[in-house]
Write a structure and sequence with these properties.
Elements lengths: L1 H13 L13 H5 L5 E5 L6 H12 L8 E5 L9 H14 L6 E5 L7 H11 L3 E6 L17 E5 L5 H7 L13 H17 L3 H5 L2 H24 L4 H12 L3 E2 L1 H10 L6 H13 L3 E4 L6 H6 L2 E5 L2 H7 L7 H19 L3 E7 L5 E8 L2 E8 L6 H18 L4 E5 L4 E5 L2 E7 H5 L11
Parallel strand pairs: 1-4, 1-5, 2-3, 3-4, 11-12, 12-14
Antiparallel strand pairs: 6-8, 7-8, 9-10, 10-11, 13-14
Helix pairs in contact: 1-4, 7-14, 9-12, 9-14
């Protein structure tokens, strides 16, 4: 065990760090936060947690040495999944290096039994700043072990924002004037279409087009195998895969409907097991399910939950739909962007709204107990009946929820309209995604 630790640490000392493209998340401030906290990076596999870590390490190396900044990836197959490895880690570091370690980066450490108890002990005892990352919700604010409560800060990492995507593609636009320049607007529209179709996972964004779908399939298989089946010891693997296919081809679900559909397909699975499988899928950060906005808990449990996925490429590459559903891709992208906003504001949450007449609003934003905004996502508003239906639902929701901040996210239309004596704003998707440059459209 001691030899394995020594080998891994010495390899780190000579490892060349990869080049990194700047992202909107900057971990530098977390390295200086007082009092020192355990910084926990969470999120779906391959969203860039490790590269964000390396970017911070590169900055820290401008002041400290490799002996003072150590990184260990616990998915290294040489590392035994035993608590003893952690117990021996710091004593081995002290024997191996003359300088005292100041920063310890632990990637996927939750694979080790009793990791949180060890981390609390050394955090309380040692003057070391810890950065911990993982692709399991065991690391999230909601499920972090009790012994670490009050000692950590969570940083949620998501796929690239649209502005980050443009940076990765080395595309530069003056966002204040791009819509008035024909060539630039065409190039921006092409970039948005790629963002909608192939998603925003960093490796896929940088890959050649013919490799993007192949890489997405490999991610999907890894999530199924490692983050769901192996982690949760799922026995009914075929039922799980059938469930995932159903969800990827759906925009909403209820447990009863999923149960009946799987039963009709001859999959033997109980409702409680089905609920567990859905929680496993969400715990892997692969899927987001949104409840109806209701003050009655019974309604939240009985009504369908709308389903979104962490990246559009999974809808395009794994689902069995043969044509591109721009309406769904737009809405899924908005859901992920709202997740990004929620990561920055823990008091924020989002729901959908529906009345007994089945009129629906895609997203309702709450901050604390107050509804702040209602949003319809409408790729195509050219049909007058569709337009009227979407706006009517917005106005009815606004009246019921006492919120006059109503927004429609469109393909290309921007403006303000009065409908039923209420003002409704319209904004193109690309501009909403770049909303920090257009403050009037930010969630207030």
């Amino acid at each position: 065990m001691d030899r394995t630790i020594r080998t891994i640490l010495l390899e780190w000392g000579s490892r060349k760090l990869p080049g990194v493209i700047d992202r909107e998340i900057d971990l530098s401030s977390y390295a200086r936060v007082k009092p020192a906290k355990i910084i926990v990076l969470t999120g779906f596999r391959r969203v860039g947690k490790t590269y964000l870590t390396f970017h911070l390490i590169q900055k820290l190396l401008e002041r400290w040495s490799r002996e003072e900044i150590l990184y260990i990836n616990f998915e290294d197959e040489r590392i035994p999944l035993r608590t003893e490895f952690l117990t021996l880690l710091l004593p081995t570091i002290r024997r191996l290096f003359q300088k005292k370690v100041k920063f310890l980066f632990l990637d996927e450490v939750h694979n080790i039994p009793n990791w949180s108890k060890w981390l609390r002990r050394v955090y309380d005892k040692e003057d070391i700043r810890f950065f911990v990352s993982g692709s399991s919700s065991k690391m999230s604010r909601q499920e972090i072990p009790t012994e670490l409560r009050g000692r950590f800060l969570e940083v949620r990492v998501l796929p690239l924002s649209f502005k980050e995507f443009l940076r990765f593609k080395d595309l530069k636009f003056d966002l204040e004037r791009v819509e008035y320049v024909v060539d630039e607007k065409a190039e921006l529209s092409k970039a948005l279409d790629e963002y909608l179709s192939y998603g925003a996972l960093p490796e896929i964004v940088l890959a050649d087009e013919e490799k993007k779908i192949e890489i997405a399939h490999s991610y999907f298989q890894t999530v199924i195998r490692r983050d769901i089946i192996e982690r949760h010891r799922v026995n009914n693997e075929e039922a799980l895969k059938a469930l995932l296919r159903l969800l990827l081809n759906s925009t909403s679900y209820t447990i009863s409907k999923l149960y009946n559909t799987l039963k009709s397909l001859n999959y033997e699975i109980g409702k409680s097991t089905l609920m567990n499988y859905i929680s496993y899928i969400e715990n892997s950060y692969f899927m987001i399910s949104t409840p109806i906005l209701s003050f009655k808990i019974k309604n939240q449990l009985q009504y369908p939950r709308k389903v979104y996925f962490i990246d559009n490429i999974f809808i395009n590459s794994i689902s069995t739909k043969f044509s591109k559903d721009y309406g769904r891709l737009y809405e899924n992208l908005v859901a992920v962007e709202l997740l990004r906003l929620r990561a920055k504001n823990p008091l924020m949450d989002f729901y959908y709204w529906r009345n007994p007449q089945h009129e629906e609003v895609d997203f309702v934003i709450k901050i604390g107990e107050k509804v702040k905004q209602s949003i319809q996502v409408c790729y195509d508003l050219s049909d007058p009946d569709t337009r009227k239906r979407e706006l009517r639902a917005l106005v009815k929701a606004g009246k019921e929820l006492q919120c006059d901040n109503m927004l429609v996210i469109t393909e290309d239309y921007e403006g303000h309209e009065i409908f039923k004596n209420k003002e409704i704003k319209f904004i193109p998707l690309w501009k909403w995604l770049c909303r920090s440059r257009f403050k009037s459209f930010q969630v207030s």
